[in-house]
Design a protein that fits this description.
two-stranded antiparallel ribbon; globular; alpha+beta; about 375 residues; 11 helices
Length: about 375
Amino acid sequence: MSRLVAVGTALPDRSHTQSEITDVIAPLLTDDPVRTALARRLHSHAGVDVRHLALPLGEYAGLRTFGASNDAFLTAATDLAETAARRALDDAGVAAHDVDHVVVTSVTGVGAPSVDVLLAARLGLRADVRRTPSFGWGCAGGATGLARTDDLLRGRPRDVALLVAVELCSLTLQHGDDSTANLAASGLFGDGAAAVVVVGDEHPLARRSHGTRAPVAARRTARVVESRSTLHPGTADELGWHVGDTGFEVVLSARLPELVGAHLLGDVKALLVEHDLTPDQVPTWVVHAGGPRILDAVRDALGLDETHLRHSRESLRRTGNLSSASVLHVLAATLETSTAPPGSPAVLMAFGPGVSTELVLLRLDGAPPVEHGTTHRVGAVA
């Protein structure tokens, strides 16, 4: 089993309240007073108080072509990915030249060379680093990326991998699109990045992670035990992008929470049964902050208490849905504060185009936070 030894997160410096963003963005989407009122209502019910944006808020009015948006993406995404990656590497005590694999996922911009190449130059990764860029995982990218990184390290157990998820959802803004899906998305998604340092089971950091004591700086770590990916037939038109002349046009079905809820319990049971576990034996749930209705669907399908979703709700409130980076932000907060005993299971989950459900079974390592409210630091949260 691979070991997750550090998580670093990063957000753009610019932050605005939801109402400030709505005041600027809504007029760019529609001049119909009825649709404007709907946009304001959807934004106010998105569960989001604050979002961080890649560009100054006033510049979005001039962002009208796919080329301009994508150019902005490549610059800002590389900066943000670098920040998250350096925080994760520093916290793990791993030098950039010791990284053997880099896995980068994003669904809000494209490039060739891709962000992994640009990031390698910034960080000073070795020339022979093995690179895996991914585009299509969407919001599931943080979970899928962790699972595929674990797959890589099972075959190379002495190696170090760096997983990076970076999303600049604000740069996909579609002027004049007052579809309900776009009105809702423009109030839900935010910009951010996260990076995870994962090592194979024979790496020294993995060996130091065994037992009940934290390996570095008294932090909590986790072992990746198993993963499960499920594509749900007949749902390909429910979530994703339609790539048009002006860029990424959102596909976001109102049925998505229903679809997630309908399949989730069976998917989770299928993941757990081979490890002699049932959902009620899992004390820790790391859930992608997809939106209020998605979180409600997860809670109801699995019979969870709201306390299991507190980090997801808080991440949504403070940053919006960060697409692939979201579940890794929730993971960082969970590891920093979890009081679950060493060796206890945790299930990490996210949902993406397909529609797919992506699950990762973890076992927590390291000592829980010390008493009197002091917590161990896992990564760095901007």
